[in-house]
Known about the structure:
Layout: H1 8-11, H2 15-21, H3 26-36, E1 39-40, H4 41-48, H5 53-65, E2 69-74, E3 80-85, H6 87-90, H7 93-120
Antiparallel strand pairs: 1-3, 2-3
Amino acid sequence: MLDSNAAPELACPVTPVVDIVFSRWTTPILWSLDNFGRQRFGELERRIGGITSKVLTQRLRQLERDGLVLRTYHPEMPPRVEYEISELGRSLAPVFATLGEWAADNLPKVEAARHKYDADS
């Protein structure tokens, strides 16, 4: 029997992965870097849309800390910073592909279940 006071990652070993990879803006950032390659901050911000500069900065720092994104500083005038997905970040591509397939196959079923639930409530 599982201890109800156990840390969530002990109850479900994928919890830390979900916390890292599937926080609100992580997926679009990684997707953009994987699909469009190395980008400057402004390019990334425009591609993602709806994200504030502050939140993008925070997420990029966390992703860099987690080893999923690489930051390159170019000491020019004016200074230039570029971001790219790391090999570790790129290793998530099969996970995203599988989730994309699941979404295509199942989101209509989820939507139908929601409509049914709402109609019955």
